[in-house]
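Hey, quick one: can you model this chain's 3D structure?
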Amino acid sequence: MIQALTLADMHPEVSIRLVEEYFESKKSQFDDARALLAKANALMALNDIESCILTFKEVLEKEREFPNFQTGVYLDYPYLVATHEVKAEYSNALDVLNEHVDRLAFPLDQFKWHASKALINSDRSEAKKALDVAEVKKSGFRFHQDVGLVGKEHESTIKSLCKIVS
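Sure thing. Here's the predicted structure for all 166 residues.
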């Protein structure tokens, strides 16, 4: 599954094929969530938002089934829903955010959490919190000061948040 995860962005079709092969030949459920995550990332790379959302929901279900395996989908799913304005998923996305609020570790996690809530609810207070976190330049971790920071790939979301705040 590591190969499928690695290939998801640059070779999404290959990644999806590897995931299909995994499910056809698997001997246990150990890598199911990781395989589904690779599939979701590949679908995102292909801009297949609807299928990506369905796959993110499958990952969340696997995480509930196997709580020792956790991914970042609890943030990626609501963030995707919010940034792509998938209104039919707003309620569920908010439920997922609220269910996992205690898992926020990095500034990027906090950004996605607040940004998702801000975009879904047009919430000025949440938008301000997300923008404040986007300004953080050090992670707070002793040896990895640049891990988990908000990067340039979130500029579009930051612009949307600025509109909510103003």
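One thing worth noting: The mean pLDDT is 94.
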